[in-house]
Amino acid sequence: MKQTDDYLLKEELSNIDLIFGQLWDVSADGMQLTDEEGRILLVNDSFCKIFQLNKQQLIGNPFPVVYAKPEQDEALKFYQQDIRNKEIKTRFEREYTLWNGRKTWLEFSNSFLALPDGNKITLSIVKDISERKSSEIELRESEQKFKMLFNNLNDAVFVTQLSRDRSYGDFIEVNDIACKRLGYTRDEFLRLSPSAIVWQKNIDDFNLFSEKLLKEGHVIYDIVHRAKDKKLIPVEINSHLFLYNDKLTSLSIARDITERKQAEQKLARSSRLLRELAVHLQSVREEERTLIAHEIHDELGQVLTALKISVSLLEKKLNKNQTALKQKVNALADMIDSSVESVQKISSKLRPGILDELGLIAAIEWQAEEFENLTNIKCNLVLPREEIKLERNKATAIFRIFQESLTNIARHSGADKATVSLLNHQSMIYLEIHDNGRGITQNQIRDFKSLGIHGMEERAMVFGGQLNIDGITGIGTTVKVEIPID
Asked: Quick check: 311 and 336 in contact, CB under 8 A?
């Protein structure tokens, strides 16, 4: 019975040796057995492949033979020291220079094996981790470059991660500029909600743009940030949405636009001053026209009327036989009548009295009738039944734009028909003049020499309105004017 047990034990040990041998041979990791002096007892094929040496070059030699000569003595010294102290580094990784000058990162797993005679040998499992280390180094360098770029941007950068229980999410990263500009430390930022740095008056806009970001994935908008010291900073936000660790994350770049806003305010103020100046100049010009028209009509008209009376009295005192003299007096009377008509026309052109006395609609009707009589161009009118209540300057501006449009039709269009419509709708005045002429071109509209067009644009712009001109070759030109009543 005992012999049977001994046989089974030997067979089992034989199987174990066989399995160990197979594991030794097929292992992808390098395996090495060394004695207490550091001599190599056994290596597998993978070990030879890692170090590019065969078993004959390795077995029986000190294990540092695989390293460059400057490293051999130091490696053997530390190994023997660990053996004496019965301590060994069980797991470590290090970059080595091998015997052939090649630099390689190796990972070692060491353990003691006790022999029946009481001696110890060391089993070392070796892995070539050069590729992994290279990737780790590249990743680390990439992270360093990213952090350097992230923290050296001139704009504040915020990274927030959205969550179900918090509508604005949480800050998960901010750069140095954000901390410096808003006065919070990075740790303080990571405890804040993104809404905490938004000026309270802008919180509704912030909500709207946050919703838009979730729908569209990208949004750009202006908002005001509130710093820790309550300083208000206008910024332009450029936000992108992406997935990070399977969570919706927002990357927002905030550019300080304080200088831009100040420039916009200065520009708006300058524009407002220029507009007010233009209104004043137009008002002064119209007042001067009105004054000149009255002076011409009253002074020159009175003189001509006195002359007409004097000539009539003179004609009555002539005898019947003074035929030649009577003809000269009659010719003089006709000349005075013609001068009176010219004075009236000049006065009307300077400032039509009907505009002040009867209003804009009556003035347009009168001007259209005059236009037809002078040019034989049929003018169709579509006007409101009731007078539109407008301040004097606006009524004058609309009438002058109308006059200039008719002048352009007569001079340049070659039309035989024009349609004019005036509409009052939702606190706006709409004037449209259309002709069936040759049609103005865009080059003519943009031409700096087109002073009449630029004058019409200026008159509309002064009152917060706009003027659009469209021309189609062979069909005609349309002038559209929009001016707010208030």
From this structure: yes
Task: Please tell me the distance from the alpha carbon of residue 11 to that of residue 213, in angstroms, as a whole number.
Answer: 73
Verify that 329 and 403 share a domain, yes or no: no
Q: Is residue 146 part of a domain?
A: no
Residues in CB range of 460: below 8 A, 6 or more apart: 397, 401, 466, 467, 481, 482, 483
The span from the CA of 198 to the CA of 158, in Å, is: 13
Query: How many other β-carbons are positioned within 10 Å of the β-carbon of residue 459?
Result: 25
d(CA 162, CA 194): 10
CA distance 176 to 156: 8
Average pLDDT for 20-49: 83
Angle at 14 between CA 9 and CA 15, to 5 degrees: 100
Strand partners, 467: 481
Long-range contact list for 24-30, CB < 8 A, 24+ apart? Answer: 27/125, 29/125, 29/126, 29/127, 30/125, 30/126, 30/127, 30/128
User: Could you write out the DSSP letters of every residue in 265-292?
Assistant: HHHHHHHHHHHHHHHHHHHHHHHHHHHH
- The alpha carbons of the chain give a radius of gyration, in whole angstroms, of 50
Name the band, by pLDDT with cuts 50, 70 and 90, for residue 286. Answer: low
Provide the edge-to-edge strand list for the sheet that holds 30-34. Answer: 40-43, 30-34, 120-128, 103-114, 91-97
Residues 283 and 188 in one domain: no
DSSP secondary structure letter of residue 100: T
Q: Are residues 369 and 478 in the same domain?
A: yes
Q: How far is CA 302 from the centre of its chain?
A: 67
Beta bridge partners of 126: 30, 108
Taking a C-beta distance cutoff of 8 angstroms, is the pair 437, 413 a contact? yes
Q: What digits encode the pLDDT tens for the residues 204-234?
A: 999 899 888 888 989 999 999 999 999 999 9
β-strands 120-128, 30-34: how paired? antiparallel
Percentage of the residues of the chain whose pLDDT score is greater than 70:
83
**CA neighbor of 48 nearest in space, from 62, 63, 65, 31:** 31
Quick check: 405 and 411 in contact, CB under 8 A?
no
Last residue of a domain, one of 351, 382, 417: 351
| CATH at residue 51 | 3.30.450.20
Asked if residues 108 and 95 have their Cβ atoms less than 8 Å apart, the reply is no
